[in-house]
Design brief:
Shape: elongated
Helix content: over 70%
Largest sheet: none
Oligomer: single chain
Strand content: under 5%
Structural class: mainly alpha
Length: about 70
């Protein structure tokens, strides 16, 4: 059952996940992986996993939103 509060929560969550995806995509982890490990500011494998998880979360949020409509 859809409620205005639930719809607002889902909408805000979707916005947050999309914003986080933009940040993650701009980190260029493929490029970082080609540099020496000592120069890494983050582990590119972990960044890639994080992006995959964000995409899964975004898909789940969109599926719930579609179901609620």
């Amino acid at each position: 059952m859809s409620t205005p509060d639930n719809e607002e929560f889902l909408h805000r969550l979707e916005i947050e996940v999309e914003a986080e995806l933009e940040i993650t995509e701009s980190s260029n982890f493929e490029e970082v992986a080609r540099t020496p490990v000592a120069e890494w500011r983050f582990d590119p494998t972990e960044a890639e996993r994080y992006e995959i998880n964000l995409r899964g979360l975004l898909g789940a949020v969109e599926a719930v939103e579609d179901r609620e409509r």
